[in-house]
Amino acid sequence: MLLKRLYESDRGGMILLAALLLAAIVVPLLNLAVPESSPFHLSTYTVTLLGKYLCFALLALALDLIWGYCGILSLGHGAFFALGGYAMGMYLMRQIGERGVYGHPVLPDFMVFLNWQELPWYWHGFDMFWFAVLMVVLVPGLLAFVFGWLAFRSRVTGVYLSIITQALTFALMLAFFRNEMGFGGNNGLTDFKDILGFSLQADGTRVGLFLASAIMLALAYLACRFIVNSRLGRVVVAIRDAEDRTRFVGYKVERFKLWLFVFSAVLAGIAGALYVPQVGIINPSEFSPLNSIELVIWVAIGGRGTLYGAALGAILVNYAKTYFTAALPELWLFALGALFVLVTIFLPRGLVGLVQGRRKPDRPPPRDETPSGETPATTGGPGA
Amino acid sequence: MIGARTAFSSLMFGLLLLAGMGAHALAAEDFTAAVQSLNAKNFTAKGEAIEAVAATGHDRSVVVLRAMLDGRLYYRKKDRRVVIVERLDKGFRLTDAATGETLGEVGKRKVRKIAINNKLRKRLRAALARLSLAHHDPRVRHQSVTEMLASVTPDTIPLLESALARETDEAVSELLRTALALAALASTDREQRLQALRTLEGNIQPEVANRIRRLLDKEKDGAVRAAAQRALTAIEDKLKFYGFLETLFFGLSLGSVLLLAAIGLAITFGVMGVINMAHGELIMLGAYTTYLVQALMPDHLEYSLLVAIPAAFLVSGLFGIAIERGVIRFLYGRPLETLLATFGISLLLQQLVRTTISAQNVTVANPQWMSGSLEINPVLSLTYNRLYILLFALLVFIVLLLILKKTSLGLQVRAVSQNRAMARAIGIRSGWVDAMTFGLGSGIAGVAGVALSQLTNVGPNMGQAYIIDSFMVVVFGGVGNLWGTLVGAFSLGVINKFLEPWSGAVLAKIVVLVFIILFIQKRPRGLFPQKGRSAEH
Lengths: 384, 537
What we know:
Chain A is mainly α. Chain A contains 15 helices and 4 strands. By secondary structure, chain B is mainly alpha-helical.
């Protein structure tokens, strides 16, 4: 029933889901069933790359939910992504067991290297998958809850919020670079061997991770779509367009923002957790403010406030990045920089807006109404 | 022992420079003869020759004895002339030991070293110490006594006493008395030790505390122990106080860097409400301008900074105006989009520098007057570059304040920032004011870059290091308030430096960031919030 209603109101989303379904069928087939000699064979490298793009799409979806629909521009979403990744990385680290370079039964290599005698308390429990998954959800969620509770309660909005989220991820980056933190310092966590008993090097595991990412992205999309179509979603859009007015009408603006922020952070954490086993490493540079800002540009290019646009933007920009950094490494940063400038000036509604045509001219919002200065009332799907 | 020797070498290097300057009208032949006699057959004769050279009191005697101690005193085989050599890749460059006349370069086989043994080394050091204590420049005497503090023994007392009797300079006399008291600490007479401790109470020469600690280790006499303890406590209290002053200075220095980095931002962000993520890159452009200016005028390094300051102001200012006219103008009223677009510009500028100049860091030279330090006392010295940058930051602040408060541009800027529509209605060209304000803020960033090039590495990524800090300063101080920026910068700098000894630099930074995040929750508009209508925007 939900699908039916969605099909009627959300053409773009249906295309995205159909594309995901197609990929989920075709990619494993081309990788596992087609022999390597065939020109149709899809290498495991490509499968992993596609899986990585899907994780980024999930992350972009998480950001679009709060930026596109609630006007909260978080420049620290990479932090939640990385925290989810670290939680998964810790599980994978514990799975290495005695196969590490130093062969210690419990301690990961870097702890042996640092002469640590026992496992720090926060590493306990990560040998169990369910516990790690719980932490993937809890740690980013809790951080978002505490941070958001403090920030929204004292009505930190707009650019101030953006800047302190950036400070948050910057502070976390500095912290995780320290060896004393017990997360592997500079090098982070790497050398993973297997997940749930399946070897990470095996083609089957890679395909499985790809499928998990695709399914997770589809589920997250449906959940986000459900949220923005619900009554809560309409309040959230109202908050974006006129926060004070919504407050005066009688809604607890802070609570809506807080729950949406926490949900978004959890999605980002899950994206990170799916990302780490596929790329095989997590290190503090994932916290760098640059990553979080790049994430924002994926969403902006795809078209914010559409959900599927964010996923599209993430996949397109990362494909371009893969291509350019290999072919023309000098040009990539020029291209990225130019994208930021051109998209904000000429494509305020992103590629999706371009496809849909310029039905509504963009106008700056009245200044006294939206301190966050978001784009005006362009609501979500094409049906709006 | 080795430490004392190297300290001694550095002292002698200083002497070497000074000795070359003046020439005493002494019997030159006597000196030449004495120097020639250094090349004697046996060590006993050489020892006498050393005393003879020292006794002449000739300016070059220090140079010659020093060279002998360092194993650089040779003689030329063909005429047995005593020479000082400088080792080159192949062979030696010779200088006449007695006259300082250059004798050209020769192969290694043309000269032979004048050998010395340990006994002669000891004698050479003693002679050099005597000579330096008798030097005519009080600064040299001061330094030589400082170096001697580490090695004074009761044997040195006569030497020091005779020096004290001759001494005319107050600071050197003071130091000589310290040295005498240190020597007396090792005395067997209890009264003398007590007397010495009374003299040394609160003396912060690093050697004094060491000596007293050593004395405490083996001293048996109760009264002496108590006196020593008291003297040591007084010293430690003083050290603590100066340590505090030093940390404060470092904090203020960091604060001045933050102020310079943030003050341009305070204008563009505070006054205009524009988030300029490319601000750090405008600082970087200023630093690179310094580099280019120095490359263009390699012979006038001393003045390069004076040229670089206006040049950097112009370069960064013009870039700023271009950014404002080309991009930001289309995004007024949409701060989040401005943030993204200017971030893109920052990537472009970084990559521009990487491709046109170099992806590596470049070296920017410090002019002579920026290096060295102002020594207030043996434990507290302030480096000139930090001191000048502190003063420079304050100067920039005052100039900026005057521009905003006293000029017509400043008046228009404030008018536009408070109410754009009304300002336009009374005939202010708001577009022009925007461009000028942005240019001014960017130009100041460029000037900050000149200052920072004297403290840190100059590279394409240097701007990134400052952008978050600068935003923190502006937000902490209160947006739209230059005084807030001043207070914010200095308090963050000082807090950071006082946290560092406890927690390490990285953790201090994290603590400060977390502190600001919490602070903004409490006071979302900073230390000095704007009041009135403009506060609502």
